[in-house]
Specification:
The chain is of the alpha/beta class and about 300 residues long. The protein folds into two domains: about 10-100 and about 155-295, 3-Layer(aba) Sandwich (Glutaconate Coenzyme A-transferase), CATH 3.40.1080.10; about 105-155, no CATH class. It is about 30% helix and about 20% strand. The chain has helices at about 10, 35-40, 55-65, 85-90, 100-115, 185-190, 205-210, 245-255, 260-270, 275-280, 285-290, and strands at about 20-25, 45-50, 55, 65-70, 75, 95-100, 120, 135-140, 150-155, 160-165, 175, 195-200, 215, 220-225.
C-alpha cells in the first residue's frame, strides 16, 4: 500500500487559484478550517466552492475574497447567526450563487460517484431553485411514465477537502462508534476526484485492521492525508471537542465589517506560518483542552 501521509502544505499545494473545490463538514462540525486558513495564507482565490451546510470555512474564504462561485444548500453560522462575510460578498455581487436543496445535492453527489452526468429528482418542483439555475437543473419527461422529472447535474469538482476523526498513513479514515448522524463527508468523498483529508490524529494501521467496519473513507479514495489536531477549530469535531464559543463570538463581532474580517484573517491566518502557530495563537493545549468533550478527546 502507498503511504499518503504528508504535511498540510504538501497536501494543498496542487490547489491553485481558479480551482473548483468541494468542502466537507456540516454546520459547526468538522469544517476543514485549518486547510482553509492555509489556502488563505497562500492567497488562493477565484474559487468555485461546492459544499453541504457550510459555516466558518466558507465564510472565511468569502472574507478573503477567494470565492467566485458557490453551490450548496446553506451558508451561515448556525446558532451564531448569518455568515456575515459570505452575505456581504453575495450582496456586493462578488459571489455567484447557485442554491440546491438537500435532496438535490445528495443526487448530485450520487451521480458523480456512479459516473453519471446527472440523476433524476422531482423535489424541486414548486420552488424557484430550478428557474434560477437552468444550466444545472433541467426538466424532462420520464421515458416510462411520461411524467415530468428534473435532471440535476453531477457534482463535478477538481478537489475535495474533508476534516475527519482519525486515519492511518495509508489514507484509511475512521469514525467513532458514537457520533452525530448528519454526516455527508462519505458521499463527498465517494464523489471526489482528488480527495485531501485532514484528521485529528494518525493511528496505527493495526488499529484500522482491528475495526475495519469503522472505516468510512477507504485509503484508495484518498490522495493525501494530514494529521491536523484541532483542524476544525474554532468549530467542533464531534466526540472530540466542542466549538470555541469565545473565539466564535470574537469572529462574529469582527466580521461586522470587511475591515474587521480582514484584520481577523491577518491575525489568525495570513500572518502565521502554519497551523502549529495558529494553535499557539489561540492558547495552545492549555486553552484547547477545555473544549474536550470526553477523556478520549485527549
Amino acid at each position: 500500500m502507498k503511504e499518503k501521509l504528508v504535511s498540510l502544505q504538501q497536501a494543498l499545494s496542487p490547489i491553485q487559484s481558479g480551482a473548483s473545490i468541494a468542502v466537507g463538514g456540516s454546520l459547526l462540525r468538522r469544517q476543514p478550517n485549518a486547510a482553509v486558513r492555509e489556502l488563505i495564507r497562500r492567497g488562493v482565490n477565484d474559487l468555485t466552492i461546492l459544499t453541504w451546510a457550510g459555516t466558518t470555512a466558507i465564510d472565511m474564504l468569502a472574507a478573503a475574497d477567494a470565492i467566485r462561485r458557490f453551490e450548496g444548500i446553506y451558508v451561515g453560522l448556525f446558532n451564531y447567526g448569518l455568515a456575515p462575510n459570505f452575505r456581504r460578498a453575495v450582496q456586493d455581487g462578488k459571489i455567484e450563487v447557485r442554491d440546491f436543496s438537500e435532496t438535490a445535492m445528495v443526487a448530485r453527489l450520487r451521480a458523480t460517484a456512479q459516473g453519471l452526468s446527472f440523476l433524476p429528482i422531482k423535489t424541486l418542483f414548486g420552488s424557484d431553485i430550478a428557474a434560477k439555475n437552468p444550466e444545472q437543473i433541467k426538466t424532462f419527461s420520464c421515458p416510462f411514465t411520461g411524467k415530468p422529472l428534473q435532471a440535476v447535474a453531477a457534482a463535478d469538482t477538481e478537489f475535495t477537502i474533508i476534516h475527519g476523526y482519525a486515519g492511518d498513513k495509508y489514507g484509511n479514515v475512521q469514525w467513532p462508534v458514537v457520533r452525530d448522524t448528519d454526516d455527508m463527508d462519505q458521499p463527498f468523498a465517494a464523489a471526489a476526484k482528488r480527495l485531501i483529508v485532514t484528521v485529528e490524529r494518525i493511528i496505527p494501521h493495526e488499529e484500522v485492521k482491528r475495526s475495519p467496519s469503522l472505516t468510512y473513507i477507504p485509503g484508495n479514495w484518498v490522495e493525501a492525508i494530514v494529521e491536523v489536531p484541532y483542524g476544525a477549530h474554532p468549530v467542533a469535531c464531534d466526540t472530540r471537542y466542542d466549538e470555541d464559543d469565545a473565539h466564535m463570538q470574537d469572529y462574529v463581532a469582527r466580521s461586522k465589517t470587511a475591515a474587521g474580517a480582514a484584520a481577523y484573517l491577518d491575525e489568525f491566518a495570513r500572518n502565521l506560518p502554519d497551523h502549529e502557530a495558529y494553535l499557539r495563537k489561540v492558547g495552545g493545549e492549555a486553552a484547547l483542552s477545555a473544549l474536550h468533550v470526553s477523556e478520549g478527546a485527549r
